[in-house]
Amino acid sequence: MPSARQPTTPPAARAGHPTTDETTLVTASSWTYLASGYRPGEELLAAQVRHDLNQADRIKTEGEPWL
What we know:
Blueprint: H1 11-14, H2 40-62
Region (Disordered): 1-23
């Protein structure tokens, strides 16, 4: 006689976590605060990029300065 299959307990339930149905997605995440602001070298690069972008915008609005 074939034996009836017993339903298995999901690993999450065995670990004490709540069980979910097939349509539930459980996401666990965490984040760590690393730093704020730029380091000295990065600040210089960012300042140069800001300057270059401002120059490009100025040239676009003024026209070509050598004419």
